[in-house]
Amino acid sequence: MAVVKARESDIALLARLMRAEAEGEGTVGMLLVGNVGINRVRANCSDFVGIRTIPQMIFQPHAFEAVLYGYFYQRAREHEKRLARRVVNGERYWPAKYSLWYFRPEGDCPDRWYNQPFVGRYKLHCFYEPTAETCVNVYTTF
């Protein structure tokens, strides 16, 4: 059962984002990017107040470098669409399980990003999640 509403066009859009942001980090890396995206749609807190759909999340200004720099505009393949459906249906993976931010630094992961604590790294990406006091919706169960 989907944790956010998603038409087939939304699945393809999310799949394109997952591919563009983390294809080099394999299946798990793409699932983690998808987790962050779904968390942003569900959060309704911090920088994501009023973000209620997958297109709003993806095209939020300055949210994802892949959208800004063009790699995002490659077609979604069936593999990425299957992964997108999995995160839309509620599969969550650490360290993105509750994360709203990730980025790829040149070196070590900073202890905080957007004033949020570092929770873990997967390959080249660092993940950051809000506190329960500032963003309870991220921590609710489906």
Helix content: 25-40%
Count of β-strands? 4
> What is the N-to-C order of secondary-structure elements (H for helix, E for strand)?
HHHHHEEEE
Radius of gyration: 14 Å
Structural class: alpha+beta
What does it look like?
With 142 residues, the chain is of the alpha+beta class. Helix content is 38%, strand content 11%. The protein has five helices and four strands; from the N terminus they run H-H-H-H-H-E-E-E-E. The chain has helices at 8-22, 26-43, 54-58, 65-69, 78-88; strands at residues 101-103, 112-113, 116-122, 125-128. Strands 1-4-3-2 form a four-stranded antiparallel β-sheet, covered by helices on one side. Helix 2 packs across helix 5 (78-88). It is globular, with a radius of gyration of 14 Å. The termini are close together. The mean pLDDT is 94.
Short key terms for the protein model shown above:
142 residues; alpha+beta; four-stranded antiparallel sheet; 5 helices
Q: What is this structure, in a nutshell?
A:
This protein is α+β, with helices and mostly antiparallel strands. About 40% of the residues lie in helices and about 10% in strands.
Task: Draw up the topology in text.
Elements: H1 8-22, H2 26-43, H3 54-58, H4 65-69, H5 78-88, E1 101-103, E2 112-113, E3 116-122, E4 125-128
Antiparallel strand pairs: 1-4, 2-3, 3-4
Helix pairs in contact: 1-2, 1-5, 2-5
